[in-house]
Specification:
This protein is of the alpha/beta class. The chain has 8 helices and 15 strands. The chain has helices at 76-89, 103-114, 147-157, 175-184, 223-236, 251-260, 270-273, 277-291; strands at 2-6, 9-11, 15-17, 40-41, 58-61, 64-67, 94-98, 122-126, 164-167, 189-192, 196-199, 214-218, 241-245, 264-267, 299-301. The chain has an 8-stranded parallel β-sheet with strand order 3-14-13-10-9-8-7-4. A hairpin with a 2-residue loop joins strand 5 (58-61) and strand 6.
């Protein structure tokens, strides 16, 4: 059997869902076998329930979608009780995505996950969410724009006892610096990239179409951004594992990320148009790689 390696994690295939687009549990199970995918990456969870932003939260734009969902979710304890058993019943390989407003909250998330670490493949740390405190009394717009704080959070996430994937933001010129900082602190992988900040307005009134004003742009439009990010980080950090995300809508866009240096990919916004997209893309990617393999990187034989 071919095992696709993302750092210490072995996956059935190089194709996963992306956090925030496949729900917290088995929402996509009606469209394909969750256990057939490389992994199911669940929606980012905090240590507590969170309502998120006011509606409207989603708006379609040319080439993709803007979202300002605001990381709503049931919280890690409720997810462990309700959703994790359902994912296990489906045979899914589970990667849990987490977020927090402070470094202490990320550590709280790690402590909660430690009790179920044997049931999870990895924890993906969403560092691209707003940050209320740097721990030094200063305020920062995103942890992922701050190498020192990103490294601190990755260090604290070690308490989960899981491989740590750091999900980074393309909205900074310090991307490589942040990637190096989290790698030095023990991150097994980086996920590149989260959404690009954007805004949509009513052309007649200028009113924002999202309840929160601005949001995150995802979909086909950001694929070139993801490719650039993967290329830059792979050149600077040849040994770190990379999960490519952003504009994966078909086999060609997935293969472009893999051949640029990603070890695996995530399918996100494409599932809103076609809930079967992860399985379709996985099938087509595997067929293509049988004809034209990647080489040694990205997989091992067991």
């Amino acid at each position: 059997m071919t095992v696709w390696a993302v750092g210490r994690v072995g996956l059935r295939s190089p194709v996963m869902t992306a956090a925030g687009t496949a729900g917290t549990g088995t929402e996509l199970a009606a469209f394909g076998g969750l256990g057939d995918l490389g992994a199911v990456v669940v929606k980012s969870l905090a240590p507590y329930p969170w309502e998120g932003n006011p509606s409207p939260r989603l708006v379609g734009v040319p080439g993709g979608m803007l979202n300002a969902v605001g990381l709503s979710g049931p919280g890690i304890p409720r997810w462990i009780e309700r959703d994790l058993p359902l994912l296990e019943r489906e045979g899914a390989t589970v990667v849990v995505s987490v977020w927090g407003r402070t470094a202490d909250e990320y550590e709280d998330a790690a402590v909660l996950l430690a009790d179920v670490s044997a049931r999870l493949a990895a924890v993906e740390v969403n560092l691209s969410c707003p940050n209320l405190s740097s721990g030094q009394g200063a305020s920062h717009p995103m942890f992922a724009h701050d190498p020192a704080m990103s490294a601190e959070i990755v260090r604290r996430m070690a308490r989960a006892g899981l491989p740590v994937w750091a999900k980074l933001s393309p909205n900074t010129d310090r991307l490589v610096e942040v990637a190096r900082a989290v790698a030095d602190e023990g991150a097994d992988a980086v996920t590149l990239v989260n959404t690009v900040r954007g805004r949509a307005v009513d052309p007649r009134t200028g009113a924002a179409l999202l309840g929160a004003g601005s949001g995150g742009l995802s979909g086909r439009a950001i694929h070139p951004v993801a490719l650039r990010a993967v290329a830059e980080v792979r050149a600077a950090l040849p040994e770190i594992a990379i999960v490519g995300a952003g504009g994966v809508v078909d086999a060609d866009s997935a293969l472009a990320l893999l051949r640029t240096g990603a070890d695996a990919v995530q399918v996100g916004t494409a599932t809103f148009a076609d809930p079967r997209a992860p399985w379709r893309i996985q099938r087509d990617v595997i067929r293509a790689l049988r004809r034209h393999p990647l080489g040694a990187r990205g997989r091992s034989r067991t």
